[in-house]
């Protein structure tokens, strides 16, 4: 048992090292401590300097082409089938998807990006065996462990449970057909969401950045949501009719996983430090932009979901801490 | 007891115990000088306390003053473990001796001691938390709960509810999972949530609801998949959540139930978490039900109506949603709420008999798109344009129609100046141009739509192909359709194949068309087989082609080739799906007519109209047959054809036959007009109605 683990560990170790090596031929200067790291996969995932270099590279004008070395590297790294290396690729999914989608109308060669996206999609399709993701919606007529009265033996009056598809079944895709593009990216984002606790903050910040670009809408009108009766003076200057680049269609298959990720960025950060606060702020901005977009699209489901996130942000600001002791002038034994 | 003003507050601050009081100032002075021991002895002497008690009180004092570091120092001096052990012996002895049924509510000796110790550990926890030593805080907080379990191995006696001891326990139970989460120990957080909710802590309903809400939020947003709770006590018919979202929704629903039963204080966070969770799952009707059960007055009624309207419109229940919005937009409620106005307008733009009403809502929305809503002006105009367009399609008079159409275009064009990037809008303008037969503009915009969406929308491809077909550029339309087929996964190809078959018919390539129809039928069969019970639910919005329609199309094709037998077989298949339909009867009628069996044809057409009185093709055919039956029948023919044109103003065949009627009746100039209309339309008729894309 332990030898087996050892083997797979050293296997993973050497694969991560060779990934670093091949990356060093692509990027200008890889931080030297990376190759000497005891946990090379983790270093690849979390090193901020490396991340900056990779994202700069991905943002270059011709980065998505089929012969792009970095895309090739991402594709190969994902195909090592080592979970910790796959995380490294997923870490860059927000940038890849973001740049990819905004370049579609420009008719640039994007085969490199597409290969990475398809690899992620194929992985998820295999993992799910193509099946839809379903849940059973709770219904209080069925007793549960959280019911106050202890579970009673089966009552015949209780209704059938409501089976709900939250992500439809997946068909294998050999290429990115344009009508499947949103779904393929959406599935990638679903996978990203399932690994979100492992993602570095910067990756989530990248995601929030692209939410705003995709929304293509200024959300600053909703700073005080839902109290929207205050007309903020001075805002007028900021409202410019500058052309928003990068607005994309946001069908539900993409918006749904986006909102799940965004909700985590907003409310799933329990550690309070500067970087996390920065993420919270960025997520708030993204949320407001997407809310404006939902209104522009008059999309009821999105208005409900994002509206509730915006309200939750404000509740959190004004909350009283119930775990605090009440202060009293007289202290009794 | 509490001070009225800040000046009197200072004077009243004191520590009381055993019937005596000590002013805090003297003790504080000692503490500030760093003499904890002196402060302790001052308390011990002044209030006849033991060292532990004195330290606990000092710690509390320091904590209240915000000197958390000093408080920690004070607490370090208490041997808490020893105290816990003493209490443990004490409480077990007592329980064994007495059976403990009729205890009084006040705190007796050992309880008092227990409270003092637990509160001290709890304050230590809070101090550590404030010093941002989260992990230590969590360990300390866990110690409170472990101590409680040691001191009260049979669970906390009910007599303790409402005591300070219980308050401390409840706070610790609530705080522990929050601390674990903050420390990044997510699995400890989950197990301490479960420990909080599944162990008997005597929590009051409010704190229990808060913990349930916190846990639900953690499950929803934490990003950590929780292992499902133990199924050891699984009873038949019990709901056992198997995923985070299931468990979160369950907890939130339980909280909602507590609120509506008045058991716990309303917490607006719960409904927002639930709104998020259920909208993400697309289960807005369930959400509507939950919100409807909220006791009146908690949610403002207009907000309630608006939310419900959003819930219903999300699943296409337009009428219900619109009725709710009408209430919310009533002049005594919130008539200027732009979201409601827009939603109402949008709903109306989707159904022709609401269109007129929609124009009014949209106009009000445009009027409200000022100040901070100015960014919505484009959307408001867009909805206005869509409502005008919808209204135009059902208007009775030509004059009215063309007025509405030009209003529609005007609004949409204006909208696009505000939102040139909005591709949905580009599509809608393209479609509006197409329906008004301004094919060049329509073509330009349809191309633009495909470019900006990168061809990701099927409807863009279909519109482009239809516009080209209307320009009689069938070959190019077929090229576009083929390109679209390349970009579409097999399952979604139905509408494109149907279009392709029709394009081939238009080019008189009948055999190719039959081939395409076969292809389409094979697809439909495959879909029928592969879609399991999960796929057949109404949730999957798919573009599947209606099988009936395909058999119908193929029957028409065979009939035009005079292959009566094949046509009859296809009609049989169509009838097996829908027994009586106007379409099938109409095709049967055309077969009779082509074979010269005019009386049978007429009877069948009439039957078709009996099923659906507004079925235009049969109306035209009856009209045409009537016009060939001599002068007395001409008025009948004219009525039928005019009626057909009222329903479908751009129906070429109706104009053509009306032209014949006018000619036979001797109204030559009317005849010329009609023929001209027919010939113009022939040059701009799409292969399928533009409406079919919507």
What does this protein structure show overall?
Chain A is mainly alpha-helical. Chain A has 13 helices and 3 strands. Chain A is globular and about 70 Å long. Chain A starts with a helix and ends with a strand. Helix content of chain B is about 70%, strand content about 0%. Among the domains of chain B are: about 80 residues, no CATH class; about 60 residues, Serine Threonine Protein Phosphatase 5, Tetratricopeptide repeat (Alpha Horseshoe), CATH 1.25.40. Chain B is built from 34 helices and 2 strands. Classes of the chains: A mainly alpha (about 325), B mainly alpha (about 700). The interface between A and B is large, with 95 and 125 residues. Strand 3 of chain A pairs parallel with strand 1 of chain B, so a sheet runs across the interface.
Salient structural properties:
heterodimer; A: 333 residues; mainly alpha; 2 domains; 13 helices; 54% helix; B: 694 residues; Serine Threonine Protein Phosphatase 5, Tetratricopeptide repeat; two-stranded antiparallel ribbon; 34 helices; 70% helix; elongated; disordered N terminus
Fraction in beta strands of chain B: under 5%
Task: Give the largest interface.
Answer: A-B, 95 and 125 residues
Number of domains of chain A: 2
State the share of residues found in helices of chain A, binned by percent: 40-55%
Q: Percent range for helical residues of chain B?
A: 55-70%
Give a short account of the largest sheet of chain B: 2 strands, antiparallel
| Proportion of residues in extended strands of chain A | under 5%
- Give average pLDDT of chain B, whole number: 87
Task: Specify the number of helices of chain B.
Answer: 34
